[in-house]
Amino acid sequence: MNDQESFISHLIELRQRLIRAVGAVLVLFVVLFIWPGSGYIYDVLAAPLMSALPEGAKMIATGVITPFMVPVKVTALAAFLMLDDHCPLQYRPDADLLSVDHRIEATHRIQGCIPMSRFLNGHCVGSH
Questions:
Q1: Residue 82's pLDDT band (boundaries 50, 70, 90)?
Q2: Is residue 89 included in any domain, yes or no?
Q3: Which range marks the domain in which residue 70 is found?
Q4: In this structure, is residue 128 part of a structural domain?
Q5: Residue 31 vs residues 9, 28, 46, 77: alpha-carbon distances, Å
Q6: Quick check: 54 pLDDT over 70?
Q7: With 60 as the cut, is the pLDDT of residue 30 above it?
Q8: Mutual orientation of helices 38-52 and 66-84 as an angle, nearest 10°?
Q9: Taking all residues of the chain, what is their mean pLDDT, rounded to a whole number?
Q10: Is 21 part of a structural domain of the chain?
């Protein structure tokens, strides 16, 4: 195998990992958008600011589509940040049962949090 074939295989692997990562973010975004809803996530994140405003003051939208787009953008950011350190789809059949990594991952599985770095490293469901 020459250098050109190796480069192409790396590009193909990169494409597969990016597709999986973007797909995971999109799936979580849709789930968060439906439940609990983008408005709820925005309200939770805006609560400290709302409590710091003077009595009778409120936040206002300065654009026509802003009341819709800001909660959607906040939900998309929340989905990305939730998957930054977590990937519930992670599967690693080649893990050594006695390794430290495996014990840490088993603990994370029980807690429901799997590092996204493992997901991007090809240890997710469907990877070879």
A1: confident
A2: yes
A3: 3-120
A4: no
A5: 33, 5, 21, 13
A6: yes
A7: yes
A8: 100
A9: 76
A10: yes
